[in-house]
Prior knowledge:
- It is a single chain.
- This protein is of the alpha+beta class.
- 32% of the residues lie in helices and 43% in strands.
- It has three helices and six strands.
- The protein has helices at residues 3-22, 26-31, 54-67; strands at 33-40, 50-52, 72-81, 84-94, 100-112, 115-123.
- It has a six-stranded mixed β-sheet.
- Strand 4 and strand 5 (100-112) form a beta hairpin.
Amino acid sequence: MQEDAQTKTTATVINQFNDAFNRHDVEAVMALMTSDCVFENTSPAPDGERFEGQAAVGRCWEALFRSSPQASFRSEEMITHGDRCIVRWQYNWIQTDGQSGHVRGVDVFRVRDGKVAEKLSYVKG
């Protein structure tokens, strides 16, 4: 695949992934991930927890969406080149006391054969 076509495919896949993520649609998110996908969470510090494979990553998303049903992800910037994509984001949620909270961070994605193979997440603070 030519570099330009690959970059366009990567951008399309990541936009679809982010849309499904914001809908809290685990099935759609996982349909956009490879069978051997990897997700590295932002916690616990300092390195975050690593999840490998469809089953483990899917359970992680289900737990996240269950614990934060009103949470939303807002992309601040997306830089895509070839099979790589960096997304600078803000993640917002409602705390148990009704107050809003947020964190800002970066995801480093790798796309393979039109699906997300890696999502490595990093957070400020």
